[in-house]
Amino acid sequence: MHPHIEDYALIGDLQTAALVGRDGSIDWLCLPRFDSGACFAALLGHKDNGHWRLSPRSSEARAERSYRGDSLILDTVWETPTGSVRVIDFMPQRDRQPDVVRIVEGLSGSVEMRGVLRLRFDYGRVVPWVRATEGSRVAVAGPDSVWLRTPHRSSTYGKDFSTRSDFTVTAGERTAFVLTWHPSHEPRPVRIDPFEALQDTLDDWHTWSARCRYQGPYREAVMRSLITLKALTYAPTGGIVAAPTTSLPEELGGVRNWDYRYCWLRDASLTLNSLLSAGYLEEAGAWRDWLLRAVAGAPDDLQIMYGLAGERRLPESELPWLSGYADSVPVRIGNAAVEQRQLDVYGEVLDSFHIARAAGLPSEPHAWSIQRALVDYLESAWRDPDEGLWEIRGPRRHFVHSKVMAWVAADRVVRALEANPKLGGDVDRWRAMRDEVHREVCEHGYDADRGTFTQFYGSAELDAATLLIPRVGFLPGDDPRVSGTIDTVRRELTFPPCPDRMEGTPLGLVRRYSTEGGSVDGLPGDEGAFLACSFWLVDALRMSGRRHEAREMFERLLDLRNDVGLLSEEYDPAAGRQLGNYPQAFSHIGLVGTAFGLQEGAGAD
Predict the structure, then answer these.
(1) I need a labelling partner for 474 at 20 to 30 A (CA). Which of 10, 247, 452, 521 fits?
(2) Distance between CA atoms of 18 and 55, rounded to whole angstroms?
(3) Which one has a higher pLDDT value, 365 or 224?
(4) pLDDT tens for each residue of 423-451
């Protein structure tokens, strides 16, 4: 059986990341980039698809783990009948090649340890040729080469297409394993000193974490979320992946399994806001610059997502040799949603540039001309149906959220020109567009009988994305239509349903939309509560004046984090476990933004 998704912790080097299980097994790692083929793919199959376990040999060993301070260095302390050890897992921020370092420290007594390494390139499909050379094991297959440096006193040998290392650690002893990837046609990679790398990595993370501006009551949760967002950043370009994994299911055994190792424009404005609020101007600037490069081109060719460096072609395919996490198939790489038409991304992009201007980020000379071109295109395109924020694989609709974000696009350029007329542009025309979109949404996207905004024009269905209406400024938080939408979403889109305004009632977690019969998304099966939407409900409650309810729900959401503070995309309240790709940037962005929102005017609680 697969470990629960929340049983994994994250390590990474700002170019890729690995998932380490409670049992000491690294079950997912793509090298050399987030979107490269995995050399450890047991997460989506079984152990023969690649993993690296390092743990005591005793079946009675018990582990507790934590991150070392405000860093991405994972400490796992194992207690056994004969003694205790600490395993330290991390990836140094690289100069050239990626390294995975695993240091074993004896804490008390004497502990027999075993390492089992199964390298399987190309997502668990290719078994490499392994040979011993110069005190290391080197595995080669096609373009990939991995070197494993083992301690001199360990007994290292091959068995069952794996490399095994047996050794004993006593109190006060320290030993290290280093795994290094490099292109197979290049000379042997440069060796690092694992113990120096540990101190350098700790210093790097602590220096970075010290820049955080947040000093409120939820600092530990905010800091861990910011570290996670930093870990999901591809340092060479500034792009931030939605998650480091693919095909972790939104329903166990279901087909809603997607590749999230790319950069979504939908995350842009929320990410930028979180980074700027926390004081990370350099990261915010890098993300804004990535965004500017990615969207450059014809306005009608804007995509919803791009590769780490802004790549446009992300063809979707299936990997039939992998059995899937908890038998959830198909396992997919690439993402066909890249071809979809999602009009909301224009608003998200233009809102991002507005946020950057307001924060004083230096502007690129051509940035305004790109923004003008985008809103000029949207002036007519906003009237068209699209696939919407949730990337439905059913018919196009007139989604309310898409129209609201078209209003955002017009509003942001109007506000920019009102603040600085020298930028140039037809402010009267864009102001008229803004007013027209607003009238149409309020006329066709609002159900007056039920007192709520709906998912799309003429629909009785709901959409959690309408909770963003006060956040983007479309309507104020105290507008009766906003309050009505909040109450209706809580009644009809939460697990479990939550009666209106009842003090002490457990607050439900929010679903994106209904997946029951004839679902708009065109897919079979169900999914869990969407964690980002749950944070949006907290924000909407706060902005509507219900701060006590907002804080209560936020603290309940914090309880859903795993033991090292990580969140996936979704949560199954019935099973009490996380679902979807992990850790999920959108969830952690929501946590940070909501924490900052609750900090504002905290005295009003």
Answers:
(1) 521
(2) 17
(3) 224
(4) 999 999 999 999 999 999 999 999 999 99
Tokens of 174: 């320290």
Determine the Cα angle at 74 with ends 599 and 533, to 5°: 40
CA dihedral sign of residues 349, 350, 355, 357: positive
Which residue in 242, 231, 188 sits closest to 93, CA to CA? 231
Tokens representing 399 are: 């989604």
Strands (E) in 282-340, as ranges, are: 305-306, 317-318, 332-333
Interatomic CA distance for residues 394 and 388, integer angstroms: 10
Instruction: Give me the amino acid identity at 186.
Output: E
pTM, two decimals, is: 0.95
State the Cα–Cα distance between residues 36 and 359, nearest whole angstrom: 35
Which residue's entry shows tokens 């395109």? 381
Do residues 408 and 465 make contact, with C-beta atoms less than 8 angstroms apart?
no
Q: At what angle do helices 281-295 and 268-278 cross, to 10 degrees?
A: 160
| Token pair belonging to 213 | 């501006």
CA separation for the pair 151, 103 (Å, rounded): 10
Cα 509 from Cα 526, distance rounded (Å): 15
How far is 420 from 424, CA to CA, in rounded Å? 8
Query: Taking residues 559-582, what's their average pLDDT?
Result: 95
Check pLDDT > 80 for residue 402.
yes
pLDDT of residue 352: 93
- Report residue 158's pLDDT band, with 50, 70 and 90 as the boundaries: confident
